[in-house]
Design goal:
The protein has 338 residues and is of the alpha/beta class. The chain folds into two domains: 133 residues, 2-Layer Sandwich (ornithine cyclodeaminase, domain 1), CATH 3.30.1780; 176 residues, NAD(P)-binding Rossmann-like Domain (Rossmann fold), CATH 3.40.50. The chain is built from ten helices and 16 strands. The strands form two sheets. Strands 1, 2, 3, 4, 5, 6, 7 and 16 form an eight-stranded mixed sheet that branches. An eight-stranded parallel sheet has the order 10-9-8-11-12-15-13-14. The longest helix has 20 residues. It starts with 10 loop residues before the first strand and ends with a strand.
Length: 338
């Protein structure tokens, strides 16, 4: 029987990974992720709690997750559909092939579908981690330690270098070849000296900022190693970072109470072994910090730890910029769905 329902045609702009990387600048990504935090702090953000769908119970090491949000202040809704597979097939990264869909809030119709793998890499280490550091690290931070030399290290370093007067980059990865490749590539992009280290302890020993971008499932950086005044960005919460920092740091700031607080604190047993995290130790989330309802760094002696598991609002805010620029430049492919 033919469909008798008559409605509007639906066309979507499709953007691939290369087009996304062509369209976005580091500055735009930083501004978009800060906007997402500010939207939450100003109650302009609708963002249901995200819940992973584990496909391998009872091991619970591989999941696909939906990350929806609506940013009312820029009139866009959407969802990122992403995966994280710690037990991944050979040759496939732990997270890859993410998809972002953008919708009009007024009628719910989709208007864009785009690769979100590039957006995830850019908005994480090179986006919300940099925003957190702007408010929580020392303004004159000169020494950056990067633990892990994968994709997010490559996007994170240039963005941190844009914001801070970096003079020394200390790197550590369990794979020496990864450190060699990272130094060779990134030495062409930043003036600061890049120094491979023999251990993560050596790398963080005198760091002003520590960027955690590993896939480790147990701590590789410990509280006692971190110097006075250090800012630590734990981009996988306390999977690879000593959870004792939640109590011993002068401030523990999480990305979003609404979006990932329940995963970082309430259900932390899935991420942290043999340690109980407490809301009593959480100083603020980034929405409170960015809007000024809670002060960020107050002196150069504070040790501050920031943990965030990402939120769909970051991806959607970044994706909207890519969409707007693509339309102006006639980039991408238009597909008629209906």
């Amino acid at each position: 029987m033919p469909n008798s329902v008559i409605g509007p045609s639906v066309e979507v702009l499709v953007l691939n990974k290369a087009e996304i990387e062509q369209l976005l600048t580091r500055r735009e990504v930083i501004e978009a992720t800060e906007l997402a935090f500010r939207s939450e702090g100003e109650e302009q953000l609708l963002q249901p709690q995200k819940e992973p769908m584990y496909i391998d119970p009872p091991q619970r090491r591989n999941f696909i997750i939906a990350m929806p949000a609506c940013l009312k202040n820029i009139n866009v809704a959407g969802i990122k559909w992403a995966c994280l597979y710690w037990d991944q097939e050979p040759g496939v990264p732990a997270t890859w092939g993410d998809i972002l869909i953008l919708n009009h809030p007024q009628n719910g119709l989709p208007f864009a579908i785009m690769d979100a793998t590039a957006i995830t890499n850019m908005r994480t280490a090179g986006g919300h981690a940099v925003v957190a550091a702007k408010y929580l690290a020392k303004k004159n931070a000169k020494v950056l330690a990067i633990i892990g030399c994968g994709a997010e290290a490559y996007t994170g370093l240039p963005a941190f270098n844009d914001v801070f007067p970096l003079e020394s980059i200390k790197i550590y990865d369990i794979n020496p070849m990864a450190m060699t490749a990272f130094k060779e590539t990134m030495s062409k992009q930043v003036l600061a000296a890049i120094e491979p280290c023999t251990s993560s302890e050596e790398a963080v020993s005198n760091a002003d900022i520590v960027l955690m971008v590993t896939s480790a499932q147990e701590p590789v950086v410990f509280e006692s190693w971190l110097p006075e005044g250090c800012f630590v960005a734990g981009l996988y919460s306390f999977c690879d970072l000593d959870p004792l920092l939640s109590k011993m740091a002068d401030k523990w700031v999480i990305g979003s109470r609404a979006s990932d607080g329940h995963l970082i604190v309430d259900n932390a047993s899935g991420l942290v072994k043999n340690f109980e995290l407490s809301w009593n130790d959480v100083y603020a989330d980034m929405g409170e910090i960015v809007t000024g309802s809670k002060p960020g760094r107050e002196n150069d002696k504070e040790r501050i730890v920031y943990t965030h598991l990402g939120m769909g609002a970051h991806d959607i805010a970044v994706g909207k910029i890519a969409y707007d620029k693509a339309k102006k430049s006639d980039i991408g492919s238009t597909v008629k769905l209906i």
